[in-house]
């Protein structure tokens, strides 16, 4: 962490969260020295992170929240975390898309950021099980944009992250074929692969994986080492992982051993 009193609140909180996860806890007085801001500012940052469920406040500082493998945060809770990383990932992932392609986007806040970028790509057919992603394209079309995009929204049962899952979604997805699948996930692990806390979402994600020619995972560095209840793909099945430059060097080396291509967004943009 670098001292900088001019950091935006979002950037400062991302640095604090990284430090909490890396060290297993932080103290307020350490953060004030390293970030060059007041005690009150740090306490407000910790309050904000605690409200999001990202940290647990303790006397004099904060520690990581020990989440159960079955805990699934809602869309709003996740959408406020790692905003800069998600935008960098979305920008890099959008470069992989060719006009006129058939593209699938799973649910998630990173695929949501990517959807905004893809409204500028001409002639896409987009299949998604995310209500939020579908809304992005619908809004673009109403505003006269959308670049001739056709959107197919699967049916299914809604999850806390606003994804549609279950047998109806699975059957619809398995009947289609995609050039590219952009897949978000709860966790990326060398042993457990790609995982999610939601069993039904895991099955729907397996349907997505089975129907695509190229699997692109879009997940920021905080997902590394996280394991949800159910694995839906091994790392060896992933063609490309678009992550941010916050991924530690050791994790990069491990990922490259199993994944065909690792793209670090923001590293050389």
> Structural class given helices, strands, pairing?
alpha/beta
- Strand tally: 15
Percentage of residues in DSSP E strands: 15-25%
Sum up the overall morphology in one term: globular
**Radius of gyration from CA coordinates:** 19 Å
Helix-strand pattern, N to C?
Answer: HEHHEEHHEHEHEEEHEEEHEEEHE
Low-confidence segments, ≥5 residues, pLDDT <50? 1-5
Which percent range fits the helix content? 25-40%
Q: What distance lies between the first and last C-alpha atoms, to the nearest angstrom?
A: 21 Å
How many H/I helical runs? Answer: 10
Mind describing the biggest β-sheet? 7 strands, parallel
Strand order of the largest sheet: 6-5-4-9-12-14-15
Task: Give the averaged pLDDT, no decimals.
Answer: 87
Features of this protein?
269 residues, alpha/beta, 15 strands, 39% helix
Written overview of the protein:
- By secondary structure, the protein is of the alpha/beta class.
- It contains ten helices and 15 strands.
- The strands form four sheets. It has a seven-stranded parallel sheet, with helices on both faces.
- α6 packs parallel to α7 (131-142).
- The longest helix is centred in the first third of the chain and has 15 residues, at 9-23.
- The chain is globular.
